[in-house]
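QA checklist item 7 of 12: single-chain prediction sanity check.
[x] sequence parsed
[x] length recorded as 93
[x] structure emitted
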Amino acid sequence: MRYERQMSVTHADFFRLLPRVVGENRIQRQANRAVIKTEKGRISVRLGPESCLKIALLELPMTDVSLEFHGYSQADYQQFIDRFRLCLHKGGG
């Protein structure tokens, strides 16, 4: 199973926030890639090049994020994605 999404995040911010989802000691990182080992299986993470979205004077960082799941059931996949979205969600008020 694969989850792909364009996110408004830099590589540094993504890897700073990722431990909120899985914990610090489960992540093995190499440059713009990582492997997350959990009790349910393994997740391969790949970040595309950083880019910028400009809207008038506003500039937002953009990165393509790809997560590939190995050994996960559909229910486990959905549970992880729900937590991932919650922990990396950015919002305004």
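[x] summary fact logged: The mean pLDDT is 92.
[ ] second reviewer sign-off
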